[in-house]
Specification:
mainly alpha, 64 residues, coiled coil
Length: 64
């Protein structure tokens, strides 16, 4: 597997200013990814809450 830091260094050296643009894009993408992960976590919790079985009275809901 290639080392991401080595790849970035290579890009920086070979592409000059363009590599800075790539770093900014990468940072923005990481931020978006983290936000998406947080949103997925919230949605999973909402789904779990919505599909959790509700507690039923021991008598099956019948009046005694």
């Amino acid at each position: 597997m290639l080392d991401p830091n080595a790849m970035l260094t290579h890009l920086t050296q070979s592409m000059g200013g363009r590599a800075i643009d790539l770093e900014v894009t990468l940072a923005a993408t990481r931020t978006e990814l983290e936000a998406a992960k947080a949103e997925i976590g919230q949605l999973r919790q909402q789904l779990a809450d919505a599909t959790a079985p509700t507690e039923q009275p021991a008598d099956g809901g019948q009046a005694t």
